Amino acid sequence: MNYTLRRHRVTLLLLAVTLVVFVAMQILYGPQATRPQVIYQFGGMFGLAVRAMPSQLWRLVTPIFVHIGWEHLLVNGLTLYFVGQLAERIWGSANFFLLYLLAGMMGNAFTLALSPAAVAAGASTSLFGVFAAIMILGLQTKNPLLRSLGRSYLSLIVVNLVLNLFMPNVGITGHLGGAIGGALAALFLPNQIGEQPLTKSRSWLAALGFLVLFFGLVAYSFA
Question: What is each CA distance from 81 to 32, 65, 86, in whole angstroms?
């Protein structure tokens, strides 16, 4: 048990924070916890408010830990539990933590820039990024298991993004942004399997590309 805690401590920490936020919402608001006002109050993204108050840019991070109802929490929580453990073994605890946050922040930057009228929340921005990161690594590695996972996750991402087009309550911009952020992060975050997708110099370019896209989206939101 102690070994599992040490090896997957970031996955369990992210789950714990997500659960604490959700329980607090239920205790304070009960059946009203899914209302947009409550989601926003607990840290959800609402681009129009952030544009009016740039000091609210911390909302590029907090929506990752806020969920809209039990079904939303269960789907994302179970996904994080299983996929997070795999990703944490691949990238290590520190780099997995960075991957999760960077993907989520990119997804929320996409929402801020392209869907500012939506009240958005959920770990799916980060989770799409984790899927995309494993996909990128899987398509580059010689490891047969990771190659198989890479192809499977590519199909999963494409199918889910297509389905998002027909689900009005699901933020496709956040999912797409999270996937792009995770894919870019996989190109510059060191992994523990000894196979980097790019050379060191090109990894720096990928990191620069991430920063340019992220800050470009933020700047566009306030233009």
Answer: 27, 14, 9
Query: Is residue 43 left, alpha or beta, with left meaning phi > 0 and alpha meaning psi from -120 to 50?
Result: left
Instruction: Give residue 64's pLDDT.
Output: 98
- Minimum mean pLDDT range among 59-68, 71-80, 84-93, 165-174: 165-174
Q: Which of 72, 124, 126, 221 is catalytic?
A: 124
Residue 106 phi/psi, 5-degree rounding, is -65, -40
Out of 175, 201, 203, 221, pick the active-site residue. 175
| Span of 2-11, 34-43, 141-150, 206-215 with lowest mean pLDDT | 2-11
Of 97, 122, 87, whose CA–CA distance to 108 is shortest?
122
Residue of 12, 20, 6 whose CA lies nearest to 62: 20
pLDDT greater than 60 at residue 3: no
115 is catalytic: no
With a threshold of 0.70, does the pTM exceed it? Answer: yes
- CA distances to 80, 125, 223 from 128, rounded to whole Å, are 10, 5, 28
